[in-house]
From TrEMBL:
SUPFAM superfamilies: Nucleotide-diphospho-sugar transferases. This is O-fucosyltransferase family protein. It comes from Volvox reticuliferus. Keywords: Membrane, Transmembrane, Transmembrane helix. Residues 1-31, 73-114 are annotated as: Disordered.
Length: 808
């Protein structure tokens, strides 16, 4: 695995107002539809024999039914054969392929017997049905040729090599194609390796008997066909110019920007040959919006060749059989990719000690206590657990210790020694890795080590396919900056009765979608059929309905001091709003979120102004939660923006609830504040004080303008309240409204308003800000209103009251 360095990301182009006018509808299928189709396919699998018997009877009836006209012909000139087949546009819908048959094919001379015809038709029908049930579209070479007719190769080509183990070779193919696209060249299919195990940091390359043809590992026709569908032409080795026509270039000699250097220095060279491009492209030369479709096109096109695919199916059946309960095979299984091999232990020592100032502290974490992590990620002991590792390279005592803990914890453990097909035992190391990789795709839950390229890539691919995936070692995903497809989970809470704030929520969702680096989730309270509920679904937000287990007890506690606490917040008057604001404390136990290690929580009154990635929060990442200042630079902190470590919060959940509900002040926490913000500050005070969230992730418009801020939080006055202040001169937040206009509000409003072009009222605020950015007009406005550039917008004796009011 290569070395990783965090690169700075520049600011991206901003959208125009018209960018969001036609985004009210989503083309992606709902989770409900996907689940229904999956259930139908499972039912088809269960009743396969009945379908085949029925189909056989229909074929027999068709073949023996009397026909008008001479034998072998129908009333039409040509007969049409209907063959069920997967549509190339969807993995969950079948289409009908019309194939014209030679009218003389069934002539009397040389015609097959009825039994042979029935057998042939049944075999053909079963093959088509198997393709349907296995979700395996099989394009032919003719299909590929037709597609390539409209996709001629470019004049310039690029050869590249692959390196190291299975996952690194898989990524090498991705980077090779991506680099060719950046350079405007046609890539040439590489050869792969049988064994790429690394005993040092040296790159392992294919040579001699260690080479293996691409088609022995992956389905070549499918790969070329799917790439062609995505507009990418790739040459097979025999189609490319001879090797002597290529100019060899070592990427290590080109510096940080390899694509720029290749284009500048070798742009005139017709045919280039480079070494392994794995991790050679820096984060700065990749564009997530442009490169992500190419990356997924390549990864989605890489699927096992027929022989390794048969191994995958055999192993999956064996795992379910060994996981049987009361003689009934298991319906599903979970998958653990456990890195504890000798070469991994040595790699972690080297990797953690690279002297470049980057924090690397999560390579071997939690490996020998993996049973604890499985409990934190809700792995059921009732589901068989397949544990993958390269057991030939694992110290026996280490394996015995770790596997013993899993068995003692109640897991039904299965390894490759239990289920490897006999024929597969003689296969090469990387073929075995390929098979286990795809066995992992069939699992209900997958967990691995995020520093391992194998596990990190499997995690990204599974999440891309909406499958559950997690990592047990904490920290970050080092490969993510070099493969710009990872989406940081972004969670917010909302309800169906806060209509006057809908415009702010829409700006938050649209600005996040513009940068395309976040995966939005909304914990929603109220009617999901409301206009805002439907809008969220249409804009690709995953809706979560969650009823807290503590709801009744919380309301009982709140009612005990309701009259006293109304002075702190109006929320104490409304039970539903009080429960809604407490929803964020359940982040670690919401089922769909339990696969994530870190999530970004924000209030709805934000907008994003830069792409956000996990590593942007700095390493090491928070041990539990991280928050930043409220109005004043002092503790307690503001819970409007939280970087949350969910496994830690899950471990502390019971103790947290006990402290939250062990309160005689009606859910007000003296010295920490009211409601959920108060209890979060109280319980996690030590961690919060030790590691505060950078203000760039919680930038306020009443402070100085920060060109490097990632998101703006309309903390205190909301945009409509700033507008009201301009019209009436009144502000419920003391001098904070004045401070906003004197500081950075107008600069941020100019950016923010493009996300809500339909909100004419907010356009008035933007227009007003356009005038107020003129120094002369601002001076007149200050004189007329009496605005002063105050350092302290809230009087000392009103600090606590202001903090409570704006928060709740």
């Amino acid at each position: 695995m290569g070395r990783y360095r965090v690169g700075l990301r520049g600011r991206e182009a901003r959208p125009t107002r018209s960018s969001f006018r036609d985004r009210s509808q989503s083309t992606s299928p709902s989770r409900c539809t996907q689940s229904s189709l999956r259930a139908i396919l499972n039912r088809l699998q269960s009743y396969r024999i009945y379908l085949l018997v029925g189909a056989a009877l229909l074929v027999l009836l068709y073949l023996t039914w009397p026909r008008s006209g001479p034998r072998g012909t129908a009333q039409h000139e040509h007969a049409v054969e209907l063959t069920p087949r997967w549509s190339s546009k969807s993995e969950t819908s079948a289409s009908t392929n019309l194939r014209v048959r030679d009218p003389d094919h069934t002539s009397t001379s040389g015609s097959p017997t009825l039994a042979k015809r029935v057998t042939a038709e049944l075999e053909h029908l079963e093959h088509g049905l198997q393709r349907l049930l296995k979700n395996r579209f099989l394009p032919s070479r003719d299909d590929l040729s037709k597609l390539l007719q409209n996709l001629p190769p470019k004049q310039q080509t690029l050869r590249f090599k692959v390196c190291n183990g299975f996952a690194n070779q898989r990524l090498s193919v991705v980077y090779g194609v991506l680099l060719a696209q950046h350079l405007g060249r046609t890539p040439v299919l590489p050869v792969l390796m049988r064994d790429g195990i690394q005993r040092s940091d040296a790159t392992v390359m294919a040579h001699g008997a260690n080479k293996v043809p691409f088609e022995d590992v992956y389905d070549l026709t499918f790969f070329l066909y799917e790439l062609a569908k995505a507009g990418i032409r790739m040459l097979e080795p025999h189609e490319a110019p001879r090797l002597s026509a290529y100019t060899e270039v070592s990427l290590g000699s080109l510096g940080a920007n390899v694509s720029g250097a290749l284009d500048t220095t070798y742009g005139h060279v017709q045919h280039l040959s480079i070494d392994c491009p794995l991790f050679k492209m820096s984060p700065g030369e990749m564009n997530q919006r442009l490169d992500e479709p190419i990356i997924w096109a390549v990864l989605d096109a890489l699927r096992p060749a027929q022989l390794p695919y048969s191994y995958v199916e055999t192993m999956q059946r064996a795992i379910k059989h060994l996981g049987a309960i009361n003689g009934k095979p298991a319906a599903r299984y979970n998958f653990l990719h456990l890195r504890l091999e000798n070469d991994w232990v040595a790699h972690c020592k080297r990797w953690s000690n690279i002297p470049d100032g980057v924090v690397r502290d999560n390579c071997y974490n939690n490996t020998e206590t993996i049973d604890v992590q499985l409990r934190l990620f809700a792995f059921s002991t009732n589901v068989p657990l397949y544990v993958a590792s390269y057991w030939n390279d694992v110290e026996p005592e280490r394996a015995k210790k770790v596997m013993g803990r899993l068995v003692d914890a109640g897991y039904r453990v299965i390894t490759s020694n239990d289920v490897f097909p006999e024929a597969m035992k003689a296969e090469d190391r990387e073929i075995k890795a390929l098979v286990e990789y795809y066995v992992g795709f069939g699992a209900s839950r997958f967990i691995g080590n995020s520093v391992s390229t194998f596990a990190a890539l499997a995690l990204l691919e599974r999440r891309h396919q909406k499958l559950w995936a997690a990592y047990y070692n904490g920290g970050n995903i080092p490969v993510a900056p070099y493969l710009p497809v990872h989406k940081l989970p972004w969670v917010f809470t909302y309800n169906s009765w806060s209509g006057k704030y809908d415009y702010m929520l829409k700006a938050a969702v649209r600005s996040a979608a513009h940068f395309n680096t976040l995966m939005p989730y909304c914990i929603f309270d109220g009617n999901t059929s409301s206009s805002i509920g439907r809008w969220l679904v249409d804009n690709n937000v995953t809706m979560i309905r969650h009823v807290p287990s503590w709801r009744d007890e919380l309301l009982k506690k709140a009612q005990s001091r309701m009259k006293d606490n109304v002075q702190h917040s109006h929320l104490y008057k409304n039970p539903d709003m009080l429960v809604s604001t407490f929803q964020r404390v359940d982040l670690p136990v919401v089922p769909i979120l339990d696969q994530y290690t870190y999530v970004l929580y924000t209030d709805a009154d934000v907008y994003f102004r830069r792409a956000i990635h996990l590593d942007d929060f700095g390493l090491p990442l928070p041990r539990s939660v991280s928050m930043s200042y409220e109005f004043y630079k002092m503790f307690p902190y503001n819970a409007g923006i939280i970087m949350a470590n969910l496994p830690t919060m899950r471990r502390n959940y019971k103790a947290f609830l006990a402290m939250m509900l062990d309160n005689d002040d009606g859910l007000y926490y003296p010295n920490y504040g009211p409601a959920d913000q108060g209890i979060i500050n109280k319980f996690y005070e030590h961690d919060l004080r030790n590691q505060m969230l950078n203000q760039a992730f919680n930038t306020k418009p009443y402070n100085d303008f920060d060109p490097n801020s990632f998101l703006i939080h309309f903390h205190g006055p909301k945009p409509h309240e700033y507008l009201s202040y301009l019209e009436t001169g009144k502000c419920d937040f003391y001098s904070v409204c004045e401070q906003g206009f004197l500081k950075s509000l107008c600069q941020y409003v100019q950016e923010w308003q493009v996300y809500i072009p339909e909100e004419t009222e907010m356009m008035r605020l933007g227009d007003s800000c356009t005038w107020l950015t003129n120094p002369t007009i601002m001076a007149v406005f200050q004189k007329k209103t009496g605005l002063l550039a105050q350092n302290q917008a809230v009087p000392d004796d009103k600090r606590q009251e202001f903090t409570q009011k704006q928060r709740l």
